[in-house]
Amino acid sequence: MLTDTFLQLVKKYSKDHELANNLWLEIFTRYSNHKRHYHTISHLEAIITDLQEVKLNIKDLDTTLFVVFYHDIIYKPSSSSNEADSAKLAKKRLTEIDYPVDKIEKCVTMILATKQHELSEDNDTNYLIDADIAILGKNPEDYQKYTEQIREEYTIYADFMYKSGRKKALQHFLQMETIYKTEHFIKEYEKQARINISNELEGLN
Predict the structure, then answer these.
(1) What CATH number did the domain enclosing 9 receive?
(2) Among the residues of 12-81, which ranges form H helices?
(3) Which domain holds residue 105?
(4) Where in the chain does DSSP place strands (E)?
(5) Tell me: the pLDDT tens digits for 152-186?
C-alpha cells in the first residue's frame, strides 16, 4: 500500500519511473535501518491511516503526503537537526521531480514543525503533526510498545540520561493547552494521551 501511495504521488509530477522507484527505494531503505525501532515504515503507515479519516479537511493532500514520507527520513538519536536535515533532503528530492516551488517550501515548513508540535496557522500542518503523535493517545498496550521502541532507539544513552531527556519531552506535551491541535484528534486521543504520558512519567521517577 505504502509503495503504491508514494509511486502514484510521484507519477503526478514526473514520468521518470526509474527516478520514482529510486526515490522510494531510498525512503524504504532509510526507514528500514536496523537501528530504527519506532521511526520505521510502520510509523509512516500509521500516520497515513490516521490521516485517511480527515483527508477531506486537508487542503494540500499531496504536499502533506510527501511530508509523511520525508519527515523522518534522516533520524539519528544523537542529532538535534533531524528535522532540518530531513527537510533539506525532501527539498532536493522534490526538486528532482519538478514539484512546484511553493509546495516544496510548504513541505519544508511542515517537516520543521514536527520538531516542537506547536499550533500552526496552517491547518494542514496541524493535521500532520497530530497524526505524527497519534501514538501518544492510543491504547495503553500500543503506547507501552511505543515507549519500548523509543528506548531501543536511544540505547546509546545511559538510563539516567535517557530518563532526563524523556521527562523533558513528555512534560513539554503535558504543559500544552492541548496536545493535539485539531478537533478530530483532540476528540479521538487527547484524554488517553494525557493518561499515558502521566503514567509513563510516574514510571520514570
Answers:
(1) 1.10.1300.10
(2) 17-31, 41-52, 61-70
(3) 2-204
(4) none
(5) 999 999 999 999 999 999 999 999 999 999 999 99
